[in-house]
């Protein structure tokens, strides 16, 4: 499990996207997660397609990896 300090450090390093996946849908936790540097926050249960869309968006925005993001889609729909 990623601690708040680790998430802040990763966010400041700026070379990775952070998506928090949690079983706690509480609004306060979502807000705190986003404020400490997460790019996105997704509570269970979630749809695999929604998770892939969020990962794709972070890859596109953070790294400009449109092709890699499209490859993720093709892989996900094949399985």
Summarize this entry quickly.
The chain is mostly helical and 79 residues long. Helices cover 61% and strands 10% of the residues. Helix 3 runs antiparallel to helix 4 (66-78).
Sequence-ordered SSE layout with sheet pairings:
Elements: H1 4-13, E1 19-22, H2 27-35, E2 40-43, H3 48-63, H4 66-78
Parallel strand pairs: 1-2
Helix pairs in contact: 3-4
Describe this structure in words.
With 79 residues, this protein is mostly helical. The chain contains four helices and two strands; from the N terminus they run H-E-H-E-H-H. Strands 1-2 form a two-stranded parallel sheet. The longest helix has 16 residues. It is flat, with a radius of gyration of 13 Å. The mean pLDDT is 80.
Biggest β-sheet strands, sense, barrel: 2 strands, parallel
Biggest sheet strand order reads 1-2
Q: What's the rounded overall pLDDT mean? A: 80
Query: How many angstroms separate the termini?
Result: 27 Å
Uncertain residue ranges:
none
Count all strands and give the number.
Answer: 2
Structural class: mainly alpha
List keywords for this structure.
mainly alpha; 79 residues; 4 helices; flat; 61% helix
